[in-house]
Recover the amino acids of this structure.
């Protein structure tokens, strides 16, 4: 139908007018007619602007060739794009319609010459190769500015019962009177960040250095790092806290620099034995007269188990979650997609609030649903039971035993020396060597009743010894 209309030139359409005024031979319209026929066959409607609007533009034109017709229509389309004339609005709709006359069909190969088609196909193959080699760009959740507006008070906390509008700013009791007045086109996020990290606001720096101190020394200068109010604990060494806060700001708010400052200090390098007189005066070590005995947290403990067993994967970057963005990681209907068994460092393990890694739960990992400035450090029976009975700990003990047996060493005493140095960083005492050697002999004799293979018995014996080393206090605590 479209092909016949194009030939007649009587259709009230843009291409009908094209033919009527251009007086081109019908061979020139074969490609256009084919594309339009394909579009009609797919049931796509095509808007048809009035030919009168086009005829008006061609009254003074007498196109002599295809190029002149092309230029004339290009000028017409530009006028339709820029002007608001009602007689050109229909043309503009045609040029912009998603399924209009100028939409390319899915297959365009038949419109190219043989030479051009070879070039296009070569370019398409090169594009496919580039797409396959395209690196995966890391993504992260971030804040994006939305509509900038003030919020209204939610009466009694009800989002459906709104009260007065409150201008963007900071609560007055927090020092909001010093907060800059915001322009209508500013949300205030950047200004809030600048206000929090302003040198005239020492609280931010005090909170930061207090938490850094607590991580390095085991206890904070302010024992309630989440509460600096009247109900919080009073700081010890107030002058030290202020000096650290000032130094922190002078060093450009650098966590690495303040950590280096603390770790090079005499206080950090003190012995854990302390002085008997100081222990009497300060039994809780609140004044930091000696180093506090510190237990490994859940993450470094897991990494240590994997390290001594030779299984730790130290690859940098990447993720252990294969779940697409905005998809459920785990819920009542789906299985847990987190690969906790992967030997990657613990920093790469996913933290899923309703499916936390069982080892983390046993060793005082923070509640991922809450903000927690300082983790607890408890000593309870389930921790020892996990080290002795969990499949993860037993597997690492087995691997550690394999590592020990693979060493080319002259005797079991030398292997025991290697195991001690690997696990707890020291050599065994003569008494420990005697006790463990006796234990290994007794265990081997007991296993011989059911296992005749000496190699397998040796592997089980060394697994037991390595298991004991990985569960001892010297392995778990940092002195």
């Amino acid at each position: 139908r479209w092909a016949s209309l194009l030939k007649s030139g009587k259709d009230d359409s843009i291409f009908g007018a094209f033919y009527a005024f251009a007086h081109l031979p019908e061979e020139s319209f074969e490609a256009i007619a084919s594309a339009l026929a394909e579009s009609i066959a797919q049931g796509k409607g095509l808007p048809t602007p009035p030919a009168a609007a086009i005829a008006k533009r061609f009254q003074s034109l007498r196109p002599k060739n295809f190029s002149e017709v092309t230029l004339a229509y290009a000028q017409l389309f530009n006028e339709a794009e820029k002007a608001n004339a009602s007689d050109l609005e229909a043309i503009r709709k045609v040029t912009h319609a998603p399924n209009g006359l100028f939409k390319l069909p899915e297959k365009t190969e038949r419109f190219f010459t043989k030479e051009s088609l070879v070039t296009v196909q070569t370019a398409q193959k090169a594009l496919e190769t580039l797409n396959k080699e395209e690196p995966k760009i890391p993504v992260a959740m971030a804040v994006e500015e939305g509509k900038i507006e003030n919020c209204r008070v939610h009466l009694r906390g009800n989002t459906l019962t709104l009260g007065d509008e409150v201008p963007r700013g900071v609560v007055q009791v927090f020092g909001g009177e010093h907060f800059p007045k915001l322009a209508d086109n500013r949300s205030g996020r950047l200004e809030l960040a600048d206000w929090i990290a302003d040198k005239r606001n020492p609280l931010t720096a005090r909170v930061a250095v207090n938490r850094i101190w607590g991580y390095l020394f085991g206890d904070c200068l302010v024992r309630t790092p989440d509460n600096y109010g009247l109900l919080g604990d009073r700081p010890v060494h107030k002058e030290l806290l202020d000096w650290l806060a000032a130094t922190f700001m002078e060093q450009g708010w650098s966590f690495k620099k303040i950590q280096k400052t603390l770790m090079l200090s005499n206080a950090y390098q003190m012995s854990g034995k302390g002085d008997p007189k100081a222990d009497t005066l300060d039994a809780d070590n609140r004044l930091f007269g000696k180093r506090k005995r510190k237990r490994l947290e859940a993450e470094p403990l897991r990494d240590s188990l994997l390290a001594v067993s030779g299984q730790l994967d130290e690859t940098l970057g990447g993720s252990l979650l294969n779940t697409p963005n905005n998809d459920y990681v785990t819920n009542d209907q789906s299985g847990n997609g987190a690969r906790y068994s992967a030997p990657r460092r613990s920093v790469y393990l996913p933290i899923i609030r309703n499916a936390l890694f069982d080892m983390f739960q046993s060793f005082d990992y923070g509640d991922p649903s809450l903000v927690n400035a300082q983790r607890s450090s408890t000593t309870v029976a389930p921790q020892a039971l996990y080290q002795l009975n969990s499949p993860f700990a037993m597997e690492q003990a087995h691997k550690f035993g394999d590592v020990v047996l693979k060493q080319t060493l002259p005797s079991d005493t030398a292997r025991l020396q290697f195991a001690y140095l690997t696990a707890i960083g020291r050599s065994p005492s003569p008494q420990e060597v005697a006790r463990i050697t006796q234990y290994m002999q007794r265990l081997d004799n007991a296993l011989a009743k059911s296992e005749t293979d000496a190699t397998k018995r040796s592997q089980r014996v060394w697994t037991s010894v390595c298991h004991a080393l990985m569960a001892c206090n010297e392995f778990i605590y940092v002195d």
Remarks:
- The longest strand covers residues 162-166.
- Residues 114-133 form the longest helix (20 residues).
- The beta strands are 151-154, 162-166, 294-295, 477-478.
